[in-house]
Design a protein that fits this description.
This protein is an alpha/beta fold and about 140 residues long. The protein is about 60% helix and about 10% strand.
Length: about 140
């Protein structure tokens, strides 16, 4: 089964906080690689940098987190899946058309759900409850 992780999950793997334990335990109990796209990787890296900018983490922790993320990708914890941007935006537009009014999910969060669908993911890892409800509604198994 293809497993896709949104940025809330990816950031929790590398930054100390409330969801870190649950995110890290995923890798201990699930040996298959987690799907990455250029979008999910760059958004997670940006979110880590923003935590440093907002002074929620120190620059040293940011650097360590970004380095460990790259190392984990190189060691096979993640598998990069290419997506065509046209396909991604079309799928996201379709999700927005069908679900925006009742779900209230932000566009960037819909991009993650569209990415999961386009990579044929069966499982979606997130700590965002609203996003998780929409992912479940479109047929994805939501964890943790």
């Amino acid at each position: 089964m293809v497993v896709y992780a949104d940025s809330s999950f990816l950031v929790a793997v590398y930054v100390q906080g409330g969801n870190a334990e649950a995110a890290r335990s995923h890798f201990a109990t699930n040996p298959q690689p987690v799907c990455l796209t250029n979008f999910s990787k760059s958004e997670a890296q940006h979110a880590i940098r923003m935590l440093a900018f907002q002074k929620h983490i120190a620059l040293a922790e940011m650097t360590r987190a970004l380095f460990q993320f790259e190392r984990d990708e190189a060691e096979g914890f993640y598998e990069m899946q290419p997506l065509e941007s046209q396909d991604l935006y079309l799928k996201t537009s379709q999700l927005s058309h069908r679900h925006a009014l009742e779900s209230g999910v932000r566009y960037l969060d819909m991009l993650h759900i569209a990415s999961a669908l386009l990579t044929n993911a069966g499982r979606f890892l997130t700590f965002d409850a609203r996003q998780g409800r929409l992912a479940k509604a479109v047929g994805l198994e939501v964890k943790p």
